[in-house]
Design goal:
It is a single chain. The chain is mostly helical and about 130 residues long. It has one domain. It is about 85% helix and about 0% strand. It has four helices and no strands. α1 packs antiparallel against α2 and α1 packs across α3. The mean pLDDT is about 90.
Amino acid sequence: MREQEKLSKQLENVIAFFRTVKQEYEYDYGQVGEQDKLKCDLLHSIELTDVDYATRCKTATKLRKCLKTRRYYKDMVEERKAIVDFLNKTENKRIFDALAKVLGDTRTVERYHKNRSYTPRIEKMSVLV
C-alpha cells in the first residue's frame, strides 16, 4: 500500500490557502494606503518646509524607501486580486462553503476508519484466537 497524506489534510491545505490569500490581500491593500499617506507627508515636507540640504536628503531617502515599500505591497495586491475576486463571487462563495462541509465529512469518515473495531456476532473472541 502507498503512504499518502490524508485527504482531509490536503483539503484543509486548499481551504487554508484561500483564506490566507484573502487575509494577505486585505492586509497588503491597507499597507498600500498607509504608504500613500506617508508618501504625501514626505512630498509635502519637501515642498513646504524650509530646511537645510541634509534634512531634505534624509527626507528624500525616506521617500525612496516609502516608494519601494509601497511598490512591494502593490505588487502583492495585484498578484492576489484575481483569487480574491474569484472568492468574492456569490456562486464561488457557495462552493467554498461547500468545500468546508466536505472537509468536515471527510474528517468524520477518517475518524471512523481510525477507530474502527469488529465485534463478532456469533463466535466468542477466545475461539478465534
